[in-house]
Specification:
By secondary structure, the protein is mostly beta strands. It has helices at about 5-10, 15, and strands at about 50, 60-65, 70-75, 80, 85-90, 105, 110-115, 125-130, 135-145, 145-155, 160-170.
Length: about 180
């Protein structure tokens, strides 16, 4: 049901009902050297941009090496899995959605705190953006003078996920 609510799936729904012809010609793919080809400059990697954590259905992103898998949604919850072992368990419960790995940021001077993504604190950011790329998921939020960028990826050559949090103080006073 969630899958068929996506605009990209709706647009190709009729194609899924077509049958493959028996006498379709076999065509070989043309090889392109991406290092020297002029076509390489025109290739744009697929990206999805979501500007809210409050969507009726969670927008998920899956990153995997085949052995290590990571799923994260636009509110920041998700799971990690290695082969058949759950590293970080997750349950599909859109009412709470409080399962996953979470990072917290605290401003001791202002006595405030929030999550690096939206969950689990659920504190609304001044600005919030999630960008899903082929190789990573980026969570960017602005809370007052603090910019928080969280980058999540799965290493292609090892069974490990990497998370990098970058905090930028845009204000005039120092933060502790």
């Amino acid at each position: 049901r969630w899958l068929h609510q996506e605009a990209a799936v709706k647009s190709s729904d009729l194609l899924l009902q077509e049958r493959m012809p028996y006498d379709a010609p076999v065509m070989e793919a043309e090889e392109i050297d991406l290092q020297t080809s002029e076509v390489a400059a025109d290739i744009v990697l697929s990206r999805r941009r979501i500007v809210t954590a409050d969507t009726p259905v969670p927008r998920t992103h899956l990153l995997s090496t085949g052995r290590y898998s990571l799923m994260v949604n636009n509110s920041g919850s998700g799971y990690s899995r290695w082969n058949d072992l759950d590293i970080i368990r997750w349950r599909s419960d859109p009412t709470t959605d409080l399962f996953g790995m979470f990072l917290y940021i605290r401003d001791r001077r202002e006595n405030t705190y929030w999550s690096a993504a939206h969950l689990p604190t659920g504190k609304l950011a001044d600005e919030y953006e999630v960008i899903y790329s082929l190789d990573k998921a980026d969570f960017h939020r602005i809370d007052g003078d603090i910019d928080t960028l969280t980058e999540i990826t799965v290493a292609p050559d090892a069974d490990v996920e990497l998370r990098r949090v970058t905090l930028t103080n845009r204000g005039r006073s120092s933060k502790h």
